[in-house]
Amino acid sequence: MAAFQAYNKILVCDDDIRNIQVGNSVIGFEFKAQYPSYRGTYVSCIELFEIEIDGETVPEKSIYFQLNGKQFLLSQMKDLYAEYWFIMEKAVLRVMQDGGISVGNHNVTLKIRHRIPYTGYFGQYMVLDGACTKTLRAI
Amino acid sequence: MEREITYCLTLYSFSREYVFGQYNLEECLAKGREMGYTGVELVASQMVPGYPYPTRQWKQEFKALLKKYNMHPVCYSAYIDMGTHSDRDLNESEIIQSTLNDMLIAKEFGFDLVRTQHAISPVVFEKMLDYCKKIGMKLAIEMHHPHNPEVPIWKEYLEIMDRSGGWLGIVPDFSIFAETPHILHIRQAIDEMGCREDKVKNIIRRHLAGETEESVLSGDYSNAEKNFVREVYEQYAPCKIEWLNTLIKNSFYVHGKFWYLEEGINDICIPYHKLMPRLKELGYRGYVASEYEGHHFNSNEEAAVQLRRFVTMCDRILNYTF
């Protein structure tokens, strides 16, 4: 078993999924995520982020990542060397999807590939794959 | 009587409890104080909200907590996050900037020692000396497995430390002395990697008997068991206690690493029964951190139980009854 896998269970937070309502329209939904390790990291160390809802992969461009009072596209994460994801900070993952998500339970999977930036003892950084699936309630 | 060696709680030991929301920072400190720890090590990248630029208010709150629990800030642990950028390593200016930033935060918290990592490079390490003197902050590189005094770069580091006038030093992590798998590693091999228990025991016995990795790998083992063989040979080797002689002069602090301690007996993984008396004989006076790292394994062991056992074990070894 690779290092830090015990922390993967916090990757998807237990908080409810919330639909994003603007006036009379629902433009998407959001849920929360925590960085799965014992310490925080720079967002630029996240090499891959994928969301599956009830087994369906969400298109990357529909996902907005909110942290430190800002919002980013997943494609921008590799450049975020000055955005630190504190280990206890819940990031928000917004999925822009017309009509949002149906009220009730949904299986949410988050997959992550992340580089551990201090591990280059003999030249190679440790890159970990982690995943977490939880059944969350959409309200 | 005064103790030559005292124990420091590295808050990192409470990683599992902290990250899973069982204890907040104050509760970690309170728990440590209750167990008799008087010194604290802080891993800033773990427990400091707003890191690497915490607010003034948070800094004041942290200092107030140390005061409330009457705990001494012993060591501020910083990292060299060389791989922060996705396309290149940190350059020299960036390493200096981040290290200096950590040293300044540490100063504000009241620490007088910053632990850094080997990736700082000899050039930058020596360049930080001027800042150490100006700020009044010692800077020490942690020597952690897989590094050890035989890794070439450390000769250079030790020479730099020797000429630093006591400002630049080392934090030996006792992972460099790990001899044989601890219980959590053994359990992981059997329960999660699918190794057979008798084979695991057999592999450990052959490794301890000094057989070569190649010879053990040629045995009748499954792929999972062969992976376990590789892990054992990569992570454990007979303890070279003489390494302490080389390191002691520049050691500002020691990381007493452990993964699992059983009640009433010495660590089977790291030979504390040899290391602690030798530390004392060599004249080491100061803190040894109790660094519990079992939380990296799928374990429900409570850090507090393990931290208590560490103190009891070391007191017993050192004949501290006071």
Question: How many distinct beta strands of chain B?
Answer: 8
Structural class of chain A: mainly beta
**Model regions low in confidence, pLDDT < 50 over at least 5 residues of chain B:** none
- Tell me the domain tally of chain B: 2
DSSP helix count of chain A? 0
SS field, number of helical segments of chain B:
14
Instruction: Kindly report how far apart the N and C termini of chain A lie.
Output: 36 Å
Oligomeric category: heterodimer
SSE succession of chain B: EHHEHHEHEHEHEHHHHHEHEH
Under CATH, the topology of the largest domain in chain B can be stated as TIM Barrel
Mean pLDDT of chain A: 95
Classification by helices and strands of chain B? alpha/beta
Sheet with the most strands: spatial strand order of chain B: 6-5-4-3-2-1-8-7
CATH homologous superfamily grouping of the largest domain in chain B: Divalent-metal-dependent TIM barrel enzymes
Percent helix of chain A, as a range, is under 10%
Radius of gyration of chain A: 15 Å
How does CATH name the architecture of the largest domain in chain B?
Alpha-Beta Barrel
Gyration radius of chain B, to the nearest Å? 20 Å
Protein chain pair with the most extensive contact, residues per chain: A-B, 32 and 37 residues
Please give the largest β-sheet of chain B. Answer: 8 strands, parallel
Task: Walk me through this protein's architecture.
The complex is a heterodimer of chains A (139) and B (322). Chain A has 139 residues and is mainly β. In chain A, a hairpin with a 2-residue loop joins strand 4 (46-53) and strand 5 (56-57). Chain A has one domain. Chain A has no helices and 11 strands. Chain A has a 5-stranded antiparallel β-sheet with strand order 1-2-9-6-7, with no helix packed on it. In chain A, strands 5-4-10-11 form a 4-stranded antiparallel β-sheet, with no helix packed on it. A two-stranded antiparallel sheet of chain A has the order 3-8. With 322 residues, chain B is of the alpha/beta class. Chain B has 2 domains: 5-179 and 238-317, TIM Barrel (Alpha-Beta Barrel); 183-232, no CATH class. Chain B contains 14 helices and 8 strands. Chain B has helices at residues 15-19, 25-34, 44-47, 56-68, 92-109, 122-135, 153-162, 183-191, 197-208, 213-217, 223-235, 242-247, 272-281, 303-317, and strands at residues 5-10, 39-43, 72-77, 113-116, 138-143, 168-172, 254-258, 286-292. An 8-stranded parallel β-sheet of chain B has the order 6-5-4-3-2-1-8-7. In chain B, helix 7 (153-162) links the parallel strand 5 and strand 6 (168-172). The N and C termini of chain B lie close together (8 Å). The model of chain B has no long low-confidence stretch (mean pLDDT 95). Chain A binds chain B through residues 1, 3-7, 10, 38-42, 44-45, 47, 78-79, 81, 84, 86-89, 115-122, 125, and chain B through 12, 15-16, 18-21, 43, 45-46, 49-52, 79-87, 89, 117-119, 146-147, 188, 192-193, 295-299.
